[in-house]
Amino acid sequence: MALYEKPDYWSIKAKKEGYPARSVYKLQEMEEKFGLFSGASRVAAKSRFFKVLDLGAAPGSWSLYALRQWGKRIFILGVDLSPLSRNYDAGLFGGAHYVFLQGDMTTGEIRDAIVAQGPFHLVMSDAAPGTTGNPGIDTLRSLVLAEAALAYADQTLLKGGNFVVKVFQGGDTPRLLQGIRERFKTGRSFKPAACRRSSFETYYLGLDKESPLYGDVLKLSP
Ligand SMILES: C[S@@+](CC[C@H](N)C(=O)[O-])C[C@H]1O[C@@H](n2cnc3c(N)ncnc32)[C@H](O)[C@@H]1O
Fold it and tell me: 152-195, pLDDT tens digit by residue?
């Protein structure tokens, strides 16, 4: 096993607490610091439940965290190229509060299916490309996914809603953060403690979306 893959504190904790991946602790920290879900639930105060889009959802830790925390107050649409792990969810992924789409979030077919399930109060993307070891290529591929996630926020996120997206730092990422600042009252970057020290990943957050839905700006491949 390569050094990078060695189970560490966070992986062991995730296993003990019944999550398929350590990434859950990144989301938990961002919720505790920035109120991603609690803000979204306030925007939806008058509705029975609030809606979340989880891009790059597999194996399912972020979705599972949200379902466990918010129970019947939440509906989640998860999207990923890969299937979810069903080892920990105790039926939650098959329940009325969860829908999963398996496919590529940058394609027209998946875009139409996502838009049909919207609008959302929180759009979150932990999507990441398979890494090649070449930082230039990996950063560029990550940016394509992050820009697609922001395009979904443009088209499906309600006014007042929240946004979080994973990026591999480098290249044109400052422009993406600038784009987030133009759309949200607060735009910032944050690296959770559970990110591997060696990793160049970080998260950009957009809190309290200012504009209403654009509706026609989502530009992805057909
Ligand atoms: C770090 S994992 C996400 C972990 C997840 N948040 C969790 O808590 O279990 C990144 C995911 O992004 C997905 N991904 C990468 N490119 C994608 C694409 N074009 N469309 C959909 N999912 C994609 C990968 O399949 C992978 O499952």
Answer: 999 999 999 999 999 999 989 999 999 999 999 999 999 999 98
**How many structural domains does the chain have?**
1
To the query of whether residue 159 is one of the catalytic residues in this protein, the response is no
Query: Hey, what are 97's tokens?
Result: 């509060």
Residue 178 domain boundaries: 36-92+106-209
Residue of the nearest CA to atom 13 in ligand 1?
56
- Report yes or no on 123 lying in a domain: yes
Q: Token digits for 171?
A: 């290249």
Scanning the structure block, which residue is given the tokens 């700006």? 217
Q: Is residue 176 part of a domain?
A: yes
CB-ligand 1 contact for 60 (6 Å cutoff): yes
First to last CA, the chain: 40
Per the domain annotation, does 202 fall within a domain? yes
Give the residue ranges of DSSP H helices in the chain: 9-16, 24-34, 36-43, 61-70, 108-117, 135-156, 173-183
